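Minutes, structural biology subgroup

Action item carried over from last meeting: produce the structure token record for Oxidoreductase (Parasedimentitalea huanghaiensis). EB confirmed the sequence was re-checked against the source entry. Recorded below for completeness.
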Amino acid sequence: MKTNGIFSFARAMFFAAIVATQGSAGTTDATEPSVLEVTGGQLLDQPVSLGVQDLRDIAVRNIVTSTIWTEGVHEFSGVPLYELLQHLDVTGSTIEAIALNDYSVFIPISDAREGGPIVAFAIDGQPIPRREKGPLWIIYPFDQSPEFRTETVYSRSIWQLNRLNIIE
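Output recorded by EB:
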């Protein structure tokens, strides 16, 4: 009898699990995956995680430019770096930009200005695939001014970006 009772209980739990998961499978309310974590500055020990839609909701700007890593001119879409920092209300002297492979570069906060770089999430209207330097890539308007066509600025154009650490 006890074996039969255990079997009935297990069967009931199995069907309950199926019913419970059916309601959540394939829903459109699922949270968007985080693509960028921002730490440091006034954020203290509370990092902010953002998805692409979060970045879009802050602001979207397009930069039409060529790069030394791509052929031809492309339209990059993303959130201006200065608007991202303003939105998060963080200040500092330097931004440490870190890629998925833990490669990092340091960007002076003075670069985060109107007409400066964007955190690009799309190229020619399409999400940037990881294999093509995505999902996020810091893009400067290289073709707009010689000041953006230097080895120093090129080195700050980190791709596969996934973290920003604001340094006081």
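Discussion: The chain has one domain: 33-167.
Next step: EB to file the record with the rest of the batch.
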